[in-house]
Amino acid sequence: MSPTIATPHCSSCLRLMQNRTFQHCAWCGHAVPATLLFTAEEIAEVHERARVEKKKADALSANGKSSVASGGIDASDVVDIVDGIAQALDLSDLF
After folding, report:
1. For residue 29, how many C-alpha atoms fall within 13 Å in the half-sphere facing its CB?
2. Out of the domains of life, which is the source (predicted)?
């Protein structure tokens, strides 16, 4: 099963949910209903896709090819940046 493409809105502040793995809205801290959260299987699928894309990017880098036309940054860097931002935005421990 693939994660839903449409991003739901918080029922409290009405902003787009930043991450459907967090228990609380990243904007207002309102509890997110379980029906809107990704399942463990969906989370695993997203992580697997990121792993596969990183592997592809690493293979391109090993062959001297950049996945970004401007050079200097490749897809594996982007995956690392996105992972870092997602971890930084996990405010669920604060609520």
Report:
1. 4
2. Bacteria
Task: For 17-74, give the DSSP string.
Answer: PS-TTSSB-TTT-PBPPGGGSPPHHHHHHHHHHHHHHHHHHHHHHHTT--SSTT-S--
Rounded to whole angstroms, the Cα distance separating 19 from 30 reads 13
Number of C-alpha atoms within 13 angstroms, CB side, residue 25?
18
Indicate the length of the chain as a whole number: 95
For the segment 25-50, what is each residue's pLDDT rounded down to a tens digit?
A: 999 999 999 998 989 998 899 889 88
CB 18 within 8 A of CB 89: yes
Q: pLDDT tens across 84-93, in order? A: 776 666 555 5
